[in-house]
Design a protein that fits this description.
The chain has 139 residues and is mostly beta strands. The protein has one domain (2-135). Helices cover 9% and strands 31% of the residues. The protein contains one helix and seven strands; from the N terminus they run βββββββα. The protein has one helix at 123-135; strands at 2-4, 22-25, 35-41, 47-51, 79-84, 92-101, 105-112. Strands 1-2-3-4-5-6-7 form a seven-stranded antiparallel sheet, with no helix packed on it. The chain is extended, with a radius of gyration of 20 Å. The protein starts with a strand and ends with a helix.
Amino acid sequence: MAVFIASPTGRVVTGSRGNLTRAITAPPTSGGTPLVSLVKYDTRNNVVETVAPKGIANGASVSCSTNLSGAINSSGLFVTDLAYDTALGTELLSITRTYADPDLGLQTATTTFAYPGNQHYSAAWQRRWGQWLHDHTVL
């Protein structure tokens, strides 16, 4: 497997801090096209987008300098988007994926996450969490 630090356009990612941005593996069959995965990060080194090999229509000859921006599936299939809180950027808030349903066509699935003290929790839940912490804290 070859690992590159390059953007989808094939340019070196300035400030990528050594994060994996592109992975190219050998074709699964002789004479096939190499499998390429892409990863995008925010300024806090959080993964904010991934594109699986099925979401990239690359040719048989692909390298770290190959411009893949036009090869990414425009429908969003095989693309995963991740969103983080804006305060610290440490809490993963949601993961969004587009998939093809055989009966309904393209659909979007979003998984959301909530954390204690986060505005997504009800006041009743926060009271129960606080009571649990109180009961299980050793002083």
